[in-house]
Backbone:
């Protein structure tokens, strides 16, 4: 079954919320708890894949939200999946702390219903 771009965007929001929940105890817990780091990496890969899928489904994310670094999000997915032995946990934490809140806000804005244009 074919999915809409908005369904992929909602998947991203769910993954962001999961990452926030996994890391609610803070950076120290993230650093010393391998299962939290692994779960976080898995969700970040899901986010990157969902970006790729939304684009493939016609989302035109670069045009709709040019301030979001879509290519970097997809690239992080590739890095986590294919260079898993070389993950820099400092960078992952900075993404959690700095980038995911911005991504969440941007996607929420994209998912807001657009006013219908009035025909005259």
Residues:
């Amino acid at each position: 079954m074919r999915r809409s771009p908005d369904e992929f965007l909602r998947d991203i929001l769910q993954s962001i919320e999961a990452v926030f929940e996994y890391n609610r105890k803070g950076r120290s817990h993230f650093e010393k708890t391998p299962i939290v780091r692994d779960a976080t990496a898995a969700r970040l890969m899901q986010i990157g894949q969902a970006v790729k899928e939304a684009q493939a489904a016609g989302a035109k994310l670069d045009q709709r939200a040019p301030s979001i670094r879509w290519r970097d999000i997809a690239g992080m997915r590739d890095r986590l999946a294919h260079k898993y032995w070389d993950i820099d946990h400092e960078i992952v934490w900075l993404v959690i702390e700095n980038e995911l809140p911005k991504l969440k806000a941007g996607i929420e804005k994209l998912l807001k219903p657009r006013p219908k244009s009035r025909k005259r």
Q: What stands out?
A: The mean pLDDT is 94.
